[in-house]
Recover the amino acids of this structure.
């Protein structure tokens, strides 16, 4: 499955990249192809990041929501778009929860 990772980045040291990279590693071990927004370069405006990541999300079959995603406006937008696109939705810490 092509899976996009969503979670909080703004206001977190190193933009929470460690959590994104750990999730990517685990998803890859499970056979997923991972779209990881933490690989984007520093220095863009937030609106530019959102344009890029929403395009990435539209290429995915599923989304993996990192812990505390509800505290992030960007991750909330990604979650709602994923629902609208009817992607599979998985949540970190809840292995048996899958929404489609």
């Amino acid at each position: 499955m092509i899976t996009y990772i969503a979670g909080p980045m703004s206001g977190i040291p190193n933009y929470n990249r460690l959590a994104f990279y750990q999730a990517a590693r685990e998803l890859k071990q499970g056979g997923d192809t991972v779209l990881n927004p933490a690989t984007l370069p520093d220095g863009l405006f937030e609106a530019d990041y959102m344009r890029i990541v929403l395009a990435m999300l539209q290429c995915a079959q599923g989304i993996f929501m990192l812990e505390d995603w509800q505290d992030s406006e960007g991750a909330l937008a990604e979650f709602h778009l994923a629902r609208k696109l009817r992607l599979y939705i998985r949540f970190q810490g809840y292995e048996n929860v899958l929404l489609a």
Observations:
- The chain is about 40% helix and 20% strand.
- The two ends are 13 Å apart (CA to CA).
- The longest strand covers residues 94-99.
- The chain has a mean pLDDT of 93.
